């Protein structure tokens, strides 16, 4: 193949490769900006004044109040406690403990109270937790319902014992669960009080997660620069140096 045609094809391949990797780099930058904006919006919500029970009842749209800090008074409904399985904390297998908190006779919130470890031999054997009677005061923030995990079976749940003790479930259908309670679910609340009642609350901090995307962007831009550098060296600089050497 004549050199001129060879240079054309190599130049075309270089342009396509550089354009593609630069485009991927800017896409990763845009993903980082999206996550940073989302994190900033969450931080704005968390910096707002703390909602109390009366304010929550006046502002029932929990998704508009998502991530707001909250201070609630109510009483537990321990007979409806749910243990979500396969929810690790700090690398240990265990359960998330969720218990509804009644705000009054007609409204309640589902509180993600904390985490308990799974028994090493018998996964159905639950560790004891305390559920105080009477009016309790808790701190937390409004959160999304627990995410679903892949499961087998119709509902991913282990039936509760005949005694009516709490069920172990893989996932929780909030709408179906709400039908078992009287009243209206106002929100899902992640409890942030210090560890108590036999549960841990070492929840991970909400982070933007932009570092990963910026690292990927750097890799794509570096690959684009490498392609351009190799092209210039092998197609122009090295041949030019060779010609200079042979003619001198």
Radius of gyration, Cα only, in angstroms? 28 Å
The helix/strand class is alpha+beta
Please count the beta strands (DSSP E, at least 2 residues each). Answer: 8
Provide the β-strand percentage band. Answer: 15-25%
Catalogue the unreliable spans.
154-166
Q: What topology, given as strand order, has the largest sheet?
A: 1-3-4-8-5
Assign a percent range to the helix content. 25-40%
Q: Calculate the terminal CA-CA distance, rounded to whole Å.
A: 27 Å
Order of helix and strand elements from N to C terminus: HHEEEEEEEHEH
**Biggest sheet overview:** 5 strands, mixed, barrel
Assign an overall shape: elongated
Mean pLDDT: 85
Tell me the number of helical segments per DSSP (H or I, 4 or more residues long).
4
Task: Write up what this structure looks like.
With 248 residues, this protein is α+β, with helices and mostly antiparallel strands. It has helices at 3-47, 53-58, 174-178, 210-247; strands at residues 69-76, 82-84, 94-102, 107-117, 136-143, 157-158, 167-169, 184-191. It has a 5-stranded mixed β-barrel. The longest helix is centred in the first third of the chain and has 45 residues, at 3-47. The model is unreliable at 154-166 (pLDDT under 50).
């Amino acid at each position: 193949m004549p050199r001129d045609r060879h240079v054309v094809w190599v130049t075309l391949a270089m342009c396509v490769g550089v354009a593609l990797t630069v485009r991927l780099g800017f896409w990763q930058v845009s993903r980082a900006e999206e996550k940073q904006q989302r994190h900033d919006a969450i931080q704005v919500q968390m910096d707002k004044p703390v909602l109390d029970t009366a304010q929550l009842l006046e502002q029932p749209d929990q998704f508009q109040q998502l991530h707001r800090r909250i201070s609630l008074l109510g009483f537990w409904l321990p007979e409806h406690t749910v243990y979500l399985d396969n929810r690790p904390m700090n690398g240990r297998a265990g359960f998330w403990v969720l218990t509804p908190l009644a705000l009054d006779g007609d409204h309640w919130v589902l509180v993600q109270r904390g985490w308990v470890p799974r028994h090493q031999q018998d996964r159905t054997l639950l560790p004891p937790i305390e559920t105080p009677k009477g009016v309790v005061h808790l701190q937390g923030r409004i959160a999304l319902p627990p995410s679903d995990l892949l499961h087998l079976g119709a509902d991913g749940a282990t039936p509760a014992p005949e005694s009516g003790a709490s069920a172990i479930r893989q996932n929780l259908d909030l709408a179906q669960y709400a039908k078992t309670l009287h009243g209206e679910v106002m929100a899902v609340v992640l409890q942030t009080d210090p560890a108590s009642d036999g549960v841990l609350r070492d929840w991970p901090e909400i982070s933007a997660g932009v570092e990963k995307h910026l690292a990927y962007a750097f890799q794509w831009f570096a690959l684009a620069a490498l392609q351009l550098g190799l092209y210039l060296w092998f197609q122009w600089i090295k041949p030019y140096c060779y010609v200079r050497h042979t003619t001198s």
